[in-house]
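Narrative of activities, Objective 1.

The group set out to show that a structural description can be obtained from nothing but a protein's sequence at a throughput compatible with the screening campaign. Below is one input-output pair from the validation batch, recorded exactly as produced.
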Amino acid sequence: MWKQSNITLTAKRRGCHLVTREVLEQLPELAELEIGLLHLFIQHTSASLTVNENADPDVRGDLERHLNVMVPENAPYYEHTLEGPDDMPAHIKSVLIGPSLSLPISNGRLALGTWQGIYLCEHRDNAGTRRLVATIQGE
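Output recorded for this entry:
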């Protein structure tokens, strides 16, 4: 089976957000698969996807704070500044983290580790909804 669908994530404030449940609610067909892959691709250049800690929200806050130190706003060497001080840092952060994930499916569920979840890393202060393309391959 191959299937591709679009997922819309609700607008989030800047930061790292656990979105596993929000993604899975929009992919009920995963339950039909014994084995497969879910590929998620975010259609934006100022947000990113990753997998990390799903239990302690302090991890998400620490990641956001570290990214803000690594990639500061208003750096004097930025040329792309017309869309606000958070825009160029958002592009850099999305390059560092990446736009996609490939996740294994096993027995109708994502085969994530016990402490793993899907993160939307929102790098803009006032972003809207985010669109993902979900491609499922499996049997």
